[in-house]
Each structure stands twice: as C-alpha cells, then as structure tokens.
Amino acid sequence: METETKDTTIKTLTPDLLQKINAYWRAANYLSVGQIYLYDNPLLKEPLKLEHVKPLVVGHWGTTPGQNFIYVHLNRIIKKYNLDLFYIAGPGHGGPAIVGNVYLEGTWSEVYPNVTQDEAGLKKLFKQFSFPGGISSHVAPTTPGSIHEGGELGYSLSHAFGAAFDNPDLIVACVVGDGEAETGPLATSWQSNKLLNPITDGAVLPILHLNGYKISNPTVLARIEDDELEHFFKGCGWKPYFVEGDDPLTMHELMASTLEKVIKDIQGIQKNARSTNDNTRPRWPMIILKSPKGWTGPKKVDGLQIEGTFRSHQVPILVDADHPDHVQLLESWMKSYKPEELFDKNGTLNADLAELAPIGNRRMGSNLHTNGGILLKDLHMPNFHDHAVSVPSPGAVTGKDTTVLGEFLRDVAKLNKDEHNFRVFGPDETLSNMLGSIFETTNRQWEARIEEYDEFLAPSGEVIDSMLSEHQCEGFLEGYLLTGRHGLFNCYEAFIRIVDSMFSQHAKWLKVTLELPWRRKIASLNYLLASHVWQQDHNGFTHQDPGFLGHVISKKADVVRVYLPPDANCLLSVFDHCLRSRHYVNVVVAGKHALPQWLTMDEAVIHCTEGIGIWQWASNDQGSEPDVVMACCGDTPTLETLAAVSILREHLPELKVRVVNVVDLMKLQSSSEHPHGLNDQDYDSIFTKDKHIIFNFHGYPWLVHRLTYRRTNRELHVRGYKEEGTITTPFDLRVQNDIDRFHLVIDVIDRLPHLGSKGDYLKQQLKDKLIEHKHYVSEHGKDLPEILNWKWNNK
Amino acid sequence: METETKDTTIKTLTPDLLQKINAYWRAANYLSVGQIYLYDNPLLKEPLKLEHVKPLVVGHWGTTPGQNFIYVHLNRIIKKYNLDLFYIAGPGHGGPAIVGNVYLEGTWSEVYPNVTQDEAGLKKLFKQFSFPGGISSHVAPTTPGSIHEGGELGYSLSHAFGAAFDNPDLIVACVVGDGEAETGPLATSWQSNKLLNPITDGAVLPILHLNGYKISNPTVLARIEDDELEHFFKGCGWKPYFVEGDDPLTMHELMASTLEKVIKDIQGIQKNARSTNDNTRPRWPMIILKSPKGWTGPKKVDGLQIEGTFRSHQVPILVDADHPDHVQLLESWMKSYKPEELFDKNGTLNADLAELAPIGNRRMGSNLHTNGGILLKDLHMPNFHDHAVSVPSPGAVTGKDTTVLGEFLRDVAKLNKDEHNFRVFGPDETLSNMLGSIFETTNRQWEARIEEYDEFLAPSGEVIDSMLSEHQCEGFLEGYLLTGRHGLFNCYEAFIRIVDSMFSQHAKWLKVTLELPWRRKIASLNYLLASHVWQQDHNGFTHQDPGFLGHVISKKADVVRVYLPPDANCLLSVFDHCLRSRHYVNVVVAGKHALPQWLTMDEAVIHCTEGIGIWQWASNDQGSEPDVVMACCGDTPTLETLAAVSILREHLPELKVRVVNVVDLMKLQSSSEHPHGLNDQDYDSIFTKDKHIIFNFHGYPWLVHRLTYRRTNRELHVRGYKEEGTITTPFDLRVQNDIDRFHLVIDVIDRLPHLGSKGDYLKQQLKDKLIEHKHYVSEHGKDLPEILNWKWNNK
C-alpha cells in the first residue's frame, strides 16, 4: 500500500497481513451472502441465474459484515497471544457470519462432515441456511462455538459474564447490537463489571456494534452525541475505545491496533490484580465499533439507499421471479468480493488465508467452553441425610424448609470450593429466602465499594445476589451452566415471571441440543422459588403469582421438571436430585416460614423417588376403596389438607378418607406425555376411577385439570390460588382462596350428600368458624389461636 | 436560625418556612411510623404499651422518610408555581409515606370519609395499614394520587413518560429507587428522554433516591464513584443535580433551592421550545437525592447500626412479646418527631402546617391525571365497515389482515389527532407487523438526531416504536391509559412474553380498582399480537411462543378478553370493539401474511358479536347431528380446518361435518367462570354432547382442554403448537405440529372406525401426500403448488 510507505506511524498490521485479513473478511462476507441467497452455483463458476437462487430468500444481512469483521480480528489476536477466547453474537440473527466463519476455520466440517471444505460442501453450506430441514437463520445450538442463540434479544452480556465467572484464563468477546442495547436486560447488564473479580474470574470484552439501525428505526445509541456515548460507558464503569469508519483497510488497522490495546489492558489488569492481590474494581476496556449497516453490500437498489441504512437489515436485494434484473445485481455484489482470489478451483479457502485462523480448540467454533458438557464435572455432594430434620411423628415438629436447605447448600458450596464450579444466584433475595447459612462458608461477590455495615460482601464469593435484576440472575446462571458448571437461581415465586421469556429460550436451547449428538449435556437449570404465594408478610397482592409452573410445563416434556416438596426432608431429597441431574429445567417451590414437618428422611426419600404417594398414616381407607380422596401438592395446601382430614376423621369417623400427596407435579400427566407421568393404571389405583378427589393445589387450579384431562376419574375438584387476598394473615389468605381446612371439609360434604344431616351440621359449624375467623382476624390482625396451635394428631 | 443570619447567601427558604417544612416532614414521618406500628394510642397520649402495637408489624421504613422529604418539597413548589404535578413512587413499598402525605393534605379523608382528620381518624389510618381487611403496605390502587403500584420494581419511569406524553402542562415527578434502578426495565427507561417532545408533551422529573441499600445489599449506583454517577446520567442525556446529606435543615434548603433550579430548567426548556418551535432534544433536569436509608429512624438497636444501612429496609425495631424493651425504643423514636407540636389535641394537623399543602386538584393525591377515568373521552371512531374487505364468497379472495387493520388505525389516529389521546406503541415492529398505513397520517416520535434516510421519524407523532424494548412499550402504554387516554401495543407474539410479569401487575391493578368506586374506569389495554407463531419467515424456533394467551386467562375473568379473528373483517370488528371497551386487557392475535378471507363484513360483525359460531356454509350437517365437529380458532388453524373439511366432503361425502369457528376464546369457558362463557346448553348445541370434536387451535392444545374441562362432551381432540419446527415453509411448520389439513383428516378417520376401508384408503393417500410434501419442501424450499394454490370450493 502506498499510504503505508508514506505513513511514518508504526502500524499493527504489515501490508501483507492487512491484505490477508481483508481477503479473509471478503471470504466471510462472500460466504454470508451465499448462505442467504444461493441454492446452487456456489462459486459463481457459471453466470448466475434465477434458478440458482433460493425460492424463499430469508436472513439478516445488516449485522453480518460487521460481525465478520470482528471475527477475523479476534482470530488474529487469539493466534498472536494464544488466547482462550470465544465469541457471543448478541445480534445473533447474523447467523451467516458465525456459520461462515466457523466453516472457514474448519470447525463446521469437523462437526458436520458432510459439509466439506470444497465446492460440494459450499453448496451444502449455502443451501442448508434458512432452508427447510437445514439450519436456523440465527446463531443457534447447531452453530459450533455458540452458547447464545440469536432471536430474542438482550441477554448476551449476562451470558458472557456468566461464562467468565470462575474461568480466570478465559476472555469472552461479546458483540452487543445497538438495537439489543435498548432492551432492559442489556441496559442493566453493562453494570455487571461490579460483580467480576479480576483475580478469580475471566474477562468480558464487550464490543458494541453501532451500525445505527434496527429493523426500520435508527438506534438510540447511534443518535446521541459522541460525548454522551462516552459519558454513558464511563458511567457504567468501562474504558471505551472507538473504532469508527467505513473504509475497510483503514478500519482493519484501527481495529487491530485497538485490539492490541484492549488485550494489553485486560492482561495488565489481571496481572496486576493477581500478582498484588489487588481487588480494586478495574475499568475494563470495551470497544465501540461504528460501521455501516450492511457494510460492503449493495449501495443502492431501485434508487433506494441500502448500505448504511435500515434497509439492509434483512435481505437487501429481493431476487425473485418478479425482479429478474436483480439476479445481475446479486451476482455483481458477490463478485465484488473476488471469490476467485479467495478459493481455489475446488472451492477450498486458499491456504495462506486459512492459516489466519487459530488452530484446534483455540478456534472460536471449537472453544471447549462453548460445549460446556465436555468440561462438566460432577459436583461433590454432601450426604443430605446429614441435614435431615428429625420427625418423631408426622407434624410433631415444625421447621423452616429453605433454612434447612440453606445448610445443605452451604455444604455443597464448601465441598466444591476448590473446583470453582458451583454458584448461587439471586436478586438480593438469598437472605430473604432464608438461605443465609451459605454465608458461613462463602460471600456475595462484589467489586464495587464495600463499607462498614455491609454483610457477607467480598471481592470473591460463590453467591452472586447483589444486583436486583432477575434478568441478570437468569442470564448469569445460563452462561455459567452452558460453559459446564452448576448452580441455582433463588427467587421470589411471583417475580420469576420477569424471566418467563428467558426461561423459554433456554428450554428451547436444551430441546434442540438434545437432538445434536455432538452437543454434550449440561447441568440442569435449578430454580428455587421461595417466598411463595402463600407466604407473604411484608408484601401482598403484587407478590402473588404461582403461574410459572404452568408456563414451564408448556415446554417440551423432555427438559422440564416441577417439584413441590411438602416439607424440609422432601426438599432436601428433591434438591439433591436436581443438583445431580443433567439438561433439565428443575423448578422447586419451597416455603421459608415454620410449618409442620411430616416425613422422616427415609420416608421422604421414598416419597420423592415415587414423586406421588398415598400417605397411609393420614388415611383411614386401608384395605378398601375410599369415600373421598384428599389430594395435596405444595407445603401450604398439604398442611390444610391434613387439617381438613383431621376434622373429617374426628367428626365423620365412618368416612373413609385417602390422603395423596404429590411432590413431582408431572406425575399427574399421562406417561405418554411426560416421562415422569403415571400410567393410567397407577393413576387410577391412587386416585380411584370414580371417587371424588378434593385436590388442594399450590398454584392455579386449572393447572391440575390441564395435567389430568385425559384421566378416567372426572370427579376432580381442585382448589388453588384464584387471585384473591392481599396483605393479611397466612391463614386468611388461604381462606380467601378457599384452600383452607374449613372450605375443604365443606367441599367434601357438598359432594357426599349421603352424609345427610351429620354433614349439614358439620358444614354449619365450619361456616360459623369461618365467620369467627374473619371477625377475629380483622379485629386482632392475627389468626385464631386454634389455627396457630393446630397439630396433627395421629390417633 | 443563627446560621441563617451569618450566612450571606440568599436562601430559598425563609427561617420560618424552613421550620414549617421540617415540621411537616416530621408529621409525615410520624404518621409513617404510626402506620407501620400502631394499633392504638395514635397520639401517644398515654405511655406506649405492647398492646398498642400491631400483633404483626410489617411494612418498609427504609425508603419512607426520603419519600416524605420529597413529597413536602414538591408540595412547596407546586403551590409556589401552581404546577400540575403528580408523584410516582418507584420504591412503592414505601406505602406509609404516600398514604401519610395524602392524609396530611386532606385527600385521604375526602376519598375515605371514615378516616377523619382527628384522633379517631388517625387510629383508623394507622390500624388499616398492612392489616387484614385494610390497605396494602405498598402504594396501591387504594392510594389516591397513584398510577403506579409498589411491589414489582422497574416500571416507574416508563409509567411516568407514558403519563407525560400529550400532557404538555403536566410534570410527572418520578422517584426512582436505587434498588429499582438495577432492574433491566428501569435501566433502559433512562433513555426515554429521546422520545419526549418538549412542545407537545409534558415533563418527567426523575428523582433518583440514592439511599444506598436494597433488602440486604448495597446498591450499585451508591457504590460507584461520583464522577461515574455523573457520567452515567449525562450519558443518558440528563442534567443531574445532586442533593446530598443527612442534616435535615441543610437538606431542606438544598432540596428547595435545587427544585427552584429544576423547575426553572423545565419551564425554560418548554418556553423556548414552544415559542420558537425548537424541537432540539433538551437535556432535561433530574435530581440525585443521597440521603440515609431509614433517615431519622433509630440509629442503633441491640448494638446494630440501623439508620443508613440495609437493616432499616423493613421494620427497624422488632416490637413484640419477645422484645418488650423495644416498646420504649419505639416510643422514643416516635416522640422524637414531637407530635405535640404538629397535631392539636384533637389529632388534627396544625393549620399553619396544613396550609403548606396545595389545595384542590393541585394536591398530588387529588391530581386528576392519577384517576384517569375522570379525564377519559371516547375516541372518535371511523366506521370500520368502510375498511371491509370485499368477500364475494368464502375464500374467494386473500388479504393481509393486519394491513387492513393498519388502514383502520390510520383513520383512528387521524380522527383523534386534535384530541391528542390515542397512541400506538411497539418495539420497532409497527412496519414489520404491517401497520404501515398509519404513517400516512402520522409519524414515529423521536427527539434524537434524524438523518437523511430515516423513514417516518419526526419530533412529534402518534406512534412510539423507536426503542427496542417491550418493557418500555408496555410501561408507556400503561402510563398513557392510566392517565385517561387510549392506545395499543403491537408486538411479535413470542416476545410479548417479555412483559408477562408487567401484564400481571396491570391486570391486578384493574381488578383492584374495579372494587374501588371512586376509581373511574380507564380505556382497555389492547395488545395486537402479530407476526405470530404460524407466520415466520426470517425467524424460527425462538420466535414461536403462543403461550401468552394461557398466561392472560389466569388473571381475573372480569378484566381479560382474548380474540383470535379468522380474517380481516373479523379483525376489524374485534378491534373496533376493543378500542371502545373499558377496563379490560384485550389480547388480539392476527396474522400479517396473505390468507384467504372468509366472511363479508356483515357476517363478520354477527360472528364476532356472537364470538363463536357454526359456519353453515362450510358444514353439511344441516338439520341433523353431525358425525364430527371440526372446530378452529385462529387464522391459520381455520385455513387448515377448512382445507381438511373440503377433503372430507370430497372423499367422504356421506360424512356429516360441522364447522365451528371461535373468535372469542373465552366463549369456551363456562358462563360461571367468565362473563363471555357459553352456558352448557349453548355449548352442547354447538359442539354436541358426544360427537368427536377435532379442534384446531392457534396456541398450545392444553389451553382448550383447560377452558373446557367442565363441559359434557369429552371427545375433544385438540391440535395446536407443540414446540416443533423452526425456519421452514409455512405449511411445513403446520405439518410438523400436526395442525395441517392432512393430519386433521387422519384424526377424523382414526376416530371414526365405521368409515372402514374407505377411511383407510383415504388415510393412506394422505400419508403418501405428507411424504411427498416432505420431499418436495426439502428439495425445493417451498410448498407444493397444490397447497399454495388451494382454494375453498363451496360446492
């Protein structure tokens, strides 16, 4: 380059390397356009015709050349410094970029040997993209090197930080789209640098890709002033570097030299922190890449500006039978990359370009962290029996379920401390959810200022719960799991719904990866939903939503599990199972207030292993069909059902009552629909074919109907949460939703007319009791002593 | 004050006013503590005893004194400048602050006359707080002056901007908690100033309440450096003012003088913009208030620091039978406010303090915008018949449903332009959802830089869709509706789930306000879910989630409505109804691609009014019971059901087929559960009591089972989305989920064994057809011509 010789500043790229990098980028751009458009004629060896173009051209061009640009530069820096670095594509609809690069570096053909690195392979590569039976238009589980699916936007940085935790030698390069940057989850995730320890964690390198447009609008960050943009990122605690322009060769040098600085910064921060044990929060570097949307694509089509505008977001040229002249445009565009200079006659990338990519597992598509199951080690598990609550007889003692679990989790954290592969996430609720025992062995990780009265904060620790963002907790945990580690997310039950949509995307990821043999199974995503709908104190109506369960089970049965342990020993047994399990989403609902304990640990293990069972000790139908089945699921419904049963057995001793408790919700569904489901015979043997079932449920009643609509017994009457009640006493909330003992007994009487006047008499007594309750509570602000003092009496 | 006379700078507050403001603040603080703790003895006329304290003390003290501080200062500035200004409490768990202030200003006693402004009223005020049968501990619908419930955090600023749009004389003071500020939705909502027009909209004054702690953690924004904090807000486009300290008198002067500057800034910006028509984006002022958490509360309790730490978040002193000595502590705390100087013997606020509050509707609790139904005007509605698609016979023409709706919405926007009370919100999807016609009459409002190639952007316009944040769209629309205007949120179906939790909170708000006669009904929240699960092109598996419907109907039947119009004329009829309706959440699912049109406008109106109906023109069971009921709900399922019926009628003409279409999903539920529900007789007359129903549904199949589980006819077989398929052809996606015509016919044959060999033969033909389809699609990337060209033939 002439300019090189005139320029006296020292360049990062030699003229030769500059040209090679540009050529590699052209190759990636060529492959990207080919994927979007071409059905055949991949090397354009013959003049392009309409029949070479896919019948339905779909995909996203706009972000793609910029991501190709980033990828080739990351390749260079990885190779130069032998970095352990992988790539997260926030604007993941730019699938062609990542797929193309993973192909160029050779990973794609290793994972999918039918797509060879020659003309035949190129044809397959192009055809499969966004084609029926092929691959998604987004970065997806099918894309080697990805832990982050394109599609729903906003979670890239949270995923990146999740991956970087406890991976001190890893750098996660996270490309953030400027559209994505407008989502709430992404906006708050810039603050994650307050949670990343420079000694024990890796680094996250955000690259804000400011190409200026979303689908049809400009982006906010592209239309504020430069000083505002810089203020913003400094305010978020970053050291921003700008890489801005549209001339490819100038931009290559700028990007290369900036990456040199950035890697120097990262390595300097880490070296300093690690050699001096200095935990001061660093100002980590980030890059703001301003490049035209649809860079190097068609400038104008039919008189409309395409490059550098929103019009390049998806397909910049419509090539179909209605636009035959556009075939020529497409061909010119593709030929502008000079494929003949890039690929040999066989369609293989020229060797001098191929050698620009890193090799082996340093290739971003082959980075082991991105197929975390490979790195996954079993947790060292404490014996949960050691944490058993002693239960001399059912209901004889009370216990706080999550407090007991907290002690178990403390020991899990302790046993795996050296492995650095277990973390607890939460939105400032770990203490509120009564898991505080974990702080006997570890702390909450926090790199911002620590002051005198803070508790359990330290620069490094296994708990991350110092940001009030459910989105961040979910994103961190997903990133942590996807890179081969273990963990859980503890959350108020109502507010887990903030991440409904994130859960869906993760469940979809799990479903698709199950179909990919090369993707190894990862640890399950465990939710502990405490502070649940029935256990309000400082909060009310806004904190009541047990609907996550219904949301979860709309996903594929292969990957979702739901548990509602009735007491602490069952919770221990269930959680031990969840932490050992793989590739599920486990939802566990548990209370934090003192409630009666029902089962010994041995009984709990049996009960949880079965997932559902008749509680013989509470039933009096031994050896015969019951008159009524009293079923319950969830800690509070179980308490009320047992209290109802004690009333029934006292006042109507001749009535044969069977008590059924459900821990594993999916047992209710048919075995043909869920692997945990009971077959009809077993279901009928528990619930009978025709006796009335009064089912007391933790969540919305219809969920039980939805799970059981194929069952024979239609005499199913479900009580559950029906959006009534706000701040009140625990028992009154149950009364307002009809799940209390009195309503349950009335339910039985209403359905068994043969009880006659004896039933009517009891019913009237209970109605009077409900009135007494109401008066007492509104006068005294607490429950009747007989409710507070009630105990199961196993006569 | 001595310091006053020595100080030569001019103070905003005279010594007398300073003392009065401080006294008013003490009164508010006193009332706050009283609400949290006291059951009796409200003026502490006798020594405090345990029995004067509530048996269960719950509430949040931490944020409360700071909010009391803000409230009294806003009172002053409102009164001084006669401002139309109301208050949003982001940290809305500080209910005692807002309730106390609304009581002090007199609004509470006007709305709830039993709570008088005397000792008896004080006792009621205190007792009702967080007490069974009383009011919530959070700011709630019961709180006059509120449009924003405390509880779930993160939406305050979006609500504030929604309220400010099209209210040019309004200032919305929005207190943002520093915990709340960590949520994603709040983090992105700082950017809303790029969407607020200084001429046609009002102002939002954010007051970041930096009291340093959440439940048990410090907050991020309180633990970064001051220069970072300033950078951050400048980067977000604000002009930040700091008010920092803990000495009350100093802080009063500082807050007062800062509010003077802030109001001057706001009025200056507006005056300049309005007098010169200058739309340049202003740097609006905001306040960062750094004050101790639990300010003026107990400093230490049992040796632990309380004031200024997380320990003051909820109840700073535990007063119960186990802590009898704490009664004295509480009494000292309350007496530190010197109630005897604030209230007269009757318990009425002294007149010289009472006059600090604004009067009439200038009181923040009485601000009319906060009871938006009062201000609500009916929309001027165009005649939707004018937009009718001409349908000569069923299926004779195709149409793009949302395109037709877009023309209707354009006319709604046009007719209400002068009223400034109708807005369309969306996350950059209004064009993608094919509502582009609206831009013939208006623009997308955008205050950031506008460049050459932008489309439909202008400083002022009725569409707000230039931020890619579903949270913002939902929050803006809620704020807009709650202040008495109309609007809709258009969104991709899958991504509406991002706001699952926000929808829940709004539905809960609607439910509670229905129970409050003084709260006037507001316009319905209308969702248009386009780009739905069956209509993917550039996207795949990640964009498929029809589960919002199931989420919505878990809320109270009084407030939720769900519509799935099968064609454009039905969509028009439904949407006309939704825009006229009040106090509902209406969910409308509609497609954007060309599909057959079935009903004339007159037929559509009848069909949508009924909500469900037998399509006689497609059925051949006239005058008798059918052999099978082919039911459908949703545009794509309707198409496939009709195609299946045409196969049945051609190949099995002797079979009597009834076609039922459902527009109003809630018709399926029992009339005892939903006001729209069919009674059993009507349901049975449509669906029969025992014939097989093959129900083709838009969403998850179980939703139909959940709605119908109480119905007599159990022979219900539902097809719907089952999480299969990604990018493929439209028809193939249906095949992969078994909702296509061929599977439907096979379903019929499988359930009617009496069809014998004729059925078997047809079944085999269809299976062959499915194989042919599969091969064709994977080879050609498009659907079989016979599928693309299929038309209903009404023989």
From TrEMBL, chains A, B:
<dbReference type="GO" id="GO:0005975">
    <property type="term" value="P:carbohydrate metabolic process"/>
</dbReference>
<comment type="similarity">
    <text>Belongs to the XFP family.</text>
</comment>
<dbReference type="Pfam" id="PF09363">
    <property type="entry name" value="XFP_C"/>
</dbReference>
<dbReference type="InterPro" id="IPR018970">
    <property type="entry name" value="Xul5P/Fru6P_PKetolase_N"/>
</dbReference>
<feature type="domain" description="Xylulose 5-phosphate/Fructose 6-phosphate phosphoketolase N-terminal">
    <location>
        <begin position="14"/>
        <end position="374"/>
    </location>
</feature>
<dbReference type="InterPro" id="IPR029061">
    <property type="entry name" value="THDP-binding"/>
</dbReference>
<keyword id="KW-0456">Lyase</keyword>
<dbReference type="GO" id="GO:0016832">
    <property type="term" value="F:aldehyde-lyase activity"/>
</dbReference>
<dbReference type="InterPro" id="IPR005593">
    <property type="entry name" value="Xul5P/Fru6P_PKetolase"/>
</dbReference>
<dbReference type="InterPro" id="IPR019789">
    <property type="entry name" value="Xul5P/Fru6P_PKetolase_ThDP_BS"/>
</dbReference>
<dbReference type="InterPro" id="IPR019790">
    <property type="entry name" value="Xul5P/Fru6P_PKetolase_CS"/>
</dbReference>
<dbReference type="Pfam" id="PF09364">
    <property type="entry name" value="XFP_N"/>
</dbReference>
<dbReference type="InterPro" id="IPR009014">
    <property type="entry name" value="Transketo_C/PFOR_II"/>
</dbReference>
<dbReference type="InterPro" id="IPR023962">
    <property type="entry name" value="Phosphoketolase"/>
</dbReference>
<dbReference type="Pfam" id="PF03894">
    <property type="entry name" value="XFP"/>
</dbReference>
<dbReference type="InterPro" id="IPR018969">
    <property type="entry name" value="Xul5P/Fru6P_PKetolase_C"/>
</dbReference>
<protein>
    <recommendedName>
        <fullName>Probable phosphoketolase</fullName>
        <ecNumber>4.1.2.-</ecNumber>
    </recommendedName>
</protein>
<keyword id="KW-0786">Thiamine pyrophosphate</keyword>
<feature type="domain" description="Xylulose 5-phosphate/Fructose 6-phosphate phosphoketolase C-terminal">
    <location>
        <begin position="592"/>
        <end position="792"/>
    </location>
</feature>
